[in-house]
Design brief:
Elements lengths: L20 H8 L3 E5 L2 E4 L1 H20 L3 E2 L5 E3 H7 L1 H4 L5 E4 L5 E4 L4 H11 L8 E10 L14 E11 L2 H21 L4 E5 L9 E8 L5 E6 L18 H8 L3 E3 L5 H7 L5 E16 L9 E3 L5 E3 L1 E8 H11 L1 E2 L2 E2 L10 E5 L5 H16 L5 E3 L5 H11 L3 E5 L1 H5 L3 E5 L5 E4 L1 H12 L4
Parallel strand pairs: 3-7, 19-20, 19-21
Antiparallel strand pairs: 1-2, 4-6, 5-6, 7-8, 8-16, 9-10, 10-13, 11-12, 11-13, 13-16, 14-15, 17-18, 21-22, 22-23
The chain binds adenosine-5'-triphosphate and magnesium ion.
Magnesium ion binds next to β13.
Length: 444
C-alpha cells in the first residue's frame, strides 16, 4: 500500500477523553473513529489489525475442532423469554420493537439462539459432540463504556458453544477450548493467564477468565508468578486427553477479585511468588450444563435409549477488545509496537526524498520485493519532512522500517530499524529485504 493512496487520518493532538495508552494511540493512529459512547467505526488501519486477530482466533478454533457459522445480531425476545434471561439481563440489553410490535433485541451473546438451532436439528447422541462458533458483533449497553474499544457498547466477539451428552464429555469440550485459548493468545504475543472466575449472568459452575496483566486493567487479579512463565502448549492432539495441560495451569493459584481468598492465597503461594496486579479480560470460558438446554427443551436420545438434556458450554474472546489489549501490552512513548503476527503492515518504507529519481526507484524496488515476499509493506511515498515520517511510522508501530535516502544510496545502503528494540542496521537494499523476510519466517 502506498501511503499517498491510503486512508490514514492521524491526529496530532491527543484527545483529552482518552485516558489510557491504547485508546490514545488508536485515535492518534487513525484506527478508529468514535460516533457515540462505546460505538466506533473501524478505519482501515484498525480493521486490518482486527481482521488479523480474528484470523488467528479462527485458525485456533478450527484446530481445536470448532466449526464456524454465523448468527444474526438481531434476535427475537421470545428465545430469551424461554430461557428466563429476558428480564434478568436488565438494562445492558438493547431492546428493539419492529414495525409490527414484535420484541427484538441486539444480541449481547448467543446461548439461546444456538440452543434453538441445536434443538431444531440434533436428536441423537450419535451427533455429539458439537462445537460451533461465530465471530459477530454484540451490543451491551454498558453502564460505563470507556477506554476506547476495550469497553465498547458495540464490540466484536468470537463466541463458541459446545453440546455434549454428559458432564464428562462437556469437560472434554471445555478443555479443548481452554488449550485453544492458550495457543490463540500466545500467537497474539500475549501472556494470558487463565483464572478461576465468577460465572456471572451466564451461570454454571466451571469457568475461567483469561487475563493479560496491564496496569490499566479493570480487574484486580491474584496469581502465582510461575504462571507468567509458562509457554503455550503449541501443537497438541485435540483428540487426546488435555486434562494434564489444564491441570498444570489450574493447579497454581490464579483468581480474579470476585473469587479471591486472601487466606488461601497467603497459604498456597510463597511470598516471593505472590503476584497481585491489574488485568484485562480477553477471554472467558464457561461450562454450565443444562442451564439453557433444560428450559429450552434441547434434548438428545442417549445410548441408554433415554432422552438427555444437552450439557453445554460457551466460550468468548473479545476480538475488538484485543486490539486495545495488545497495544496496552506493547507500546512505548512514541507509539504502538505491533507483534509480527497482527501488524497491519509487515514493514514501512520511508522515502526521505520523494521525487528524486534514484530514491524513488530504490523504494519502488524494495516495495515490489517485499510485496512479492508476502510482507505487505506500507510505502511512505509522501513529500513530508523526515521527522514527520519517522514519528508517523513509530506511532503506527510497524515491526520494521526501511529508511531510504539519497545519502545512504550513494554508498549503496539503506537503514533498517526494528521498532521494538530501536536497533538500526545499515544494509544493502536486498539485504534489507532478506532480513525482514527472515524475521517473518515461521510467523503466521
Ligand atoms: P467484562 O467482565 O469485561 O464486562 P464479561 O464477563 O461481561 O466482560 P463475557 O460475557 O465473558 O464478558 O464476554 C466474552 C468476552 O467479550 C470478554 O472476555 C471480553 O473480552 C469481551 N467483552 C465483554 N464485554 C465487552 C465490551 N463491553 N467491550 C469489548 N469487549 C467486551
Ligand atoms: Mg466475563
Amino acid at each position: 500500500m502506498r501511503l499517498s493512496r491510503y486512508f490514514l487520518p492521524l491526529l496530532k493532538e491527543t484527545p483529552a477523553s482518552a485516558e489510557i495508552a491504547s485508546h490514545r494511540f488508536m485515535l492518534r493512529a487513525g484506527m478508529v473513529k468514535q460516533h457515540s459512547a462505546g460505538i466506533y467505526s473501524w478505519l482501515p488501519l484498525g480493521l486490518k489489525v482486527m481482521n488479523k486477530i480474528a484470523d488467528i482466533v479462527r485458525e485456533e478454533q478450527e484446530r481445536a475442532g470448532a466449526v464456524e457459522m454465523l448468527m444474526p445480531t438481531i434476535q427475537p425476545a421470545e428465545l430469551w423469554r424461554e430461557s428466563g434471561r429476558y428480564d434478568d439481563y436488565g438494562k445492558e440489553m438493547l431492546r428493539i420493537e419492529d414495525r409490527s410490535g414484535r420484541a427484538l433485541l441486539y444480541g449481547p451473546t448467543n446461548e439461546e439462539m444456538l440452543t434453538d438451532i441445536f434443538r431444531t436439528f440434533v436428536r441423537s447422541y450419535k451427533d455429539l459432540p458439537q462445537l460451533l462458533y461465530h465471530i459477530q458483533w454484540k451490543f451491551r449497553d454498558e453502564v460505563r463504556p470507556r477506554f476506547g474499544v476495550m469497553r465498547g457498547r458495540e464490540f466484536l466477539m468470537k463466541d463458541s458453544y459446545s453440546f455434549d451428552i454428559d458432564m464428562d464429555a462437556a469437560v472434554i469440550s471445555y478443555n479443548k477450548m481452554f488449550v485453544a485459548y492458550l495457543n490463540t493468545f500466545a500467537r497474539l504475543g500475549l501472556q494470558a493467564v487463565p483464572m478461576r472466575a465468577d460465572t456471572g449472568p451466564i451461570g454454571g459452575d466451571l469457568s475461567h477468565e483469561f487475563l493479560i496483566l496491564a496496569d490499566t486493567g479493570e480487574s484486580e487479579v491474584f496469581c502465582h508468578a510461575d504462571l507468567l512463565e509458562l509457554d503455550a502448549p503449541g501443537a497438541v492432539d485435540f483428540g487426546a486427553d488435555l486434562q494434564a495441560i489444564v491441570n498444570e495451569r489450574t493447579a497454581l493459584y490464579a483468581r480474579t477479585e470476585e473469587m479471591h481468598d486472601a487466606e488461601i492465597f497467603a497459604k498456597d503461594v510463597p511470598k516471593d511468588k505472590q503476584v497481585s496486579a491489574r488485568g484485562i479480560e480477553v477471554g472467558h470460558i464457561f461450562c454450565f450444563g443444562d442451564k439453557y438446554s433444560k428450559p429450552m427443551g434441547a434434548k438428545v436420545m442417549g445410548p441408554d435409549g433415554k432422552e438427555h438434556f444437552a450439557q453445554m458450554g460457551s466460550y468468548g474472546i473479545g476480538v475488538s477488545r484485543l486490539v486495545g489489549g495488545i497495544i496496552e501490552a506493547s507500546h512505548d512513548e512514541a507509539g504502538i509496537i505491533w507483534p509480527l503476527s497482527v501488524a497491519p503492515f509487515g514493514a514501512g518504507i520511508l522515502n526521505l526524498r520523494a521525487g528524486d529519481d534514484d530514491t524513488d526507484k530504490a523504494c519502488e524496488d524494495i516495495y515490489a520485493k517485499l510485496g512479492a515476499a508476502g510482507i505487505d509493506p506500507l510505502y511512505d511515498d509522501k513529500a513530508d519532512r523526515g521527522g514527520v515520517k519517522f514519528s508517523r511510522m513509530d506511532l503506527i508501530g510497524l515491526p520494521f522500517q526501511i529508511i531510504v535516502g539519497p545519502r545512504g544510496l550513494k554508498d549503496g545502503i539503506v537503514e533498517v530499524k526494528t521498532r521494538k528494540t530501536g536497533e538500526r542496521q545499515n544494509l544493502t537494499p536486498s539485504e534489507a529485504v532478506n532480513f525482514i523476510v527472515q524475521q517473518f519466517k515461521g510467523i503466521s
